[in-house]
Amino acid sequence: MVQLRQLRYVIEVNRQGNHISAAADALNTSQPGMSKQIQELELELGFSIFQRSRNRVTGLTDPGREVVEIAQRILNEVQSLKNIREDYGAQEGGTLTIATTHTHARYILPRVIKSFVQRHPHVRIGLLQGNPTEICEAVETGKADIAVGTETMRPFPHLLRLPCYQITRSLIAPKGHPIFRVKTLTLEAIAKYPMIAHDPHRSGRWKILDAFEKKGITPTILFNAVDADVGKTYVEMGIGIAVMATDAFDPAHDRALRARDASHLFEASTSYVTLRTDTYIRRFIFDFIELLTPALTPDHVRATLRARERERAAK
């Protein structure tokens, strides 16, 4: 008989790039025990899930790819049953795990989380931080309930991504910097000074550099900052200037810095809330989404989820 534990093992081995030892560590079990369970599952099914070479897993077989997809759906449905039990079992608590980027975690979500905690004091909040692609991967694999972030480096066809708001950009430089004396802020004026750039995995970097490239301008990039706070640290030291999300500038804390609107020079990024379409979503998650973006009411999100499911069923 197929066991849920075996399905989890298969999914985790695939997730860990076919490394059974890494999968065993991630699930706090032994490598020999995991290997045995996977082999028993293959024996039960009558075919190999994984390709092997010299006793090493090297990839999925063709039927193995189907197994992974089905296994993920089964585990999602099991989690849905647990979520329904908690939603309708007079249990006010639970856990909301949000995968998000540094800018959102530091500057955008705090006010939302504060309101949410006041409304749902028994729900535990967990934050997973990463770049936009990584946070959607966390939702896709079930490590997070929702993701909040900007554009990703690859598509996620099995996730629903709902646009929340636009993130505009500002120029950040030390107080008294000559750039603030320029009457009209242009790309040419910005390019005269060395810059602290974004992490290459974030959409802000693409959009900023694309704006320069379209004008045939090559800015001097000193180095890539891992997040807005690190970038501002080096800007404050006078090493360079930066273009970053307007929300990332906090006048109360960034007293040695100044910001100047640059939204006319750089395309805004769209922030999305991302969630799975194949699992039951608890009611407090809908509440969080509405607090984040009032236009995304529970009824609107549910209707969009149903429409997505109909589209998938029709294919």
UniProtKB/TrEMBL annotation:
InterPro entries: LysR_HTH_N, LysR_subst-bd, WH-like_DNA-bd_sf, WH_DNA-bd_sf. Residues 2-60 form the HTH lysR-type domain. It comes from the Bacteria. Keywords: DNA-binding, Transcription, Transcription regulation. This is LysR family transcriptional regulator. Belongs to the LysR transcriptional regulatory family.
